[in-house]
Design a protein that fits this description.
By secondary structure, this protein is an alpha/beta fold. Helix content is about 30%, strand content about 20%. The protein is built from seven helices and ten strands.
Length: about 250
Amino acid sequence: MSTAGTVVLVGAGPGAADLLTVRAARALASADIIFYDALVCEELLALAPNAATCFVGKRAGRPSMSQETIIRLLIRAARRGQRVVRLKSGDPFVFGRGGEEALALARAGIRYEVVPGVSSAIAAPAAAGIPVTHRGVASGMLVLTGEPEDTWRQVIKDLTPRTLTIVMLMGLRKRAPLAEEMIARGWEPSTPAAIVFSATSAAEARVFTTLGELPSIAFPSGTEGAPGVIVIGDVVTVAHQLEAIASELEGVA
């Protein structure tokens, strides 16, 4: 194994800076250079006052640096003896291509560490009052990504309707084909659904709907271009129950 620098694959969490883990904050504080993603809260970069920063983010439909180039940059910086942080939104190993980077670093003889982060697959529903599992309602969850489409279509095809909570990341553009596929596979159009935009940030917004209305739902003002997490399943009704209880308590007060 090389005695050069190290690379730390750090999960930045779902959005809010104070949801960063203590270990992640320590990695940032000791970094020489940080390669960070598009959805990373830039407030986190202030935790690394002595580090150089390099934006390597990707967003759907926009020009971006290739994954191969990012990996080359990580390896080159580490071989120069630098303490490198690869800062990824959410968790590095949940649709973050962290596994690809870890494999490339290992093959190159670069020492690396993985610092898990809070994934928006769990944090976004939770922020909206939606538990992804709930006794008597859903005993498990299925996390999907919008691309590639043929992959999630096969998963939905083999899934018994309303047995799990469905969470889709990076899938706002696929909400219509997703809803159509699920309904074609036996899911009721009345199945509760929600979209959580910019979860845990100051710009967070939520939309509650049904599976049948998901394709045509109007997005809240200010959410254009914002990341969104789709949640489908009966657990969405828990958020409605929590809101009803809060309203009752306000009325009593």
